[in-house]
């Protein structure tokens, strides 16, 4: 760009900014700046609180993570044990049912044999 074009653009920009200044009241601009500073302060306070909370959470997690890992391993082990137990029970039940077909009643006879009240029904 030539120097004259740059000067023309700068002059046009200056004139445009002067026109904008006449459209906006200086008191409104001051109040907007003040509100922006208040909002900035609140956001900085919130950011500090969140940073403190994140540090606290990180410390708490570090304290609990080993227990969580141990308990998770224990639960997985218990689940495997229970799966094994239920598998054995199913196979024993199948063997008993094959040997003694009347050992386990079907659904219709279970209802007649079971006379206990249903505690799930509201009274």
TrEMBL record:
TM segment ranges: none
Gene Ontology cellular component terms for the protein in this record: BORC complex; cytoplasm; nucleus
Residue ranges with Basic and acidic residues bias: 112-123
GO terms for biological process, alphabetical: lysosome localization
Domain KxDL intervals: 20-104
Region (Disordered): 102-123
Source superkingdom: Eukaryota
One protein family per Pfam: KxDL
Any one GO molecular-function label of the UniProt entry: protein homodimerization activity
Membership in a protein family: Belongs to the KXD1 family.
Name by which UniProt lists this protein: KxDL domain-containing protein
């Amino acid at each position: 760009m030539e120097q004259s074009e740059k000067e023309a653009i700068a002059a046009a920009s200056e004139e445009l900014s002067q026109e904008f200044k006449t459209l906006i009241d200086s008191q409104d601009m001051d109040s907007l700046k003040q509100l922006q500073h208040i909002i900035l302060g609140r956001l900085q306070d919130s950011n500090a609180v969140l940073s403190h909370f994140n540090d606290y959470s990180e410390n708490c997690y570090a304290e609990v993570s080993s227990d969580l890992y141990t308990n998770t391993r224990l639960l997985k082990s218990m689940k495997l044990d229970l799966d094994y137990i239920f598998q054995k029970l199913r196979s024993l039940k199948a063997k008993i049912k094959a040997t003694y077909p009347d050992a386990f009643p079907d659904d219709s006879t279970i209802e007649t044999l079971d006379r206990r009240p249903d505690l799930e029904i509201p009274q």
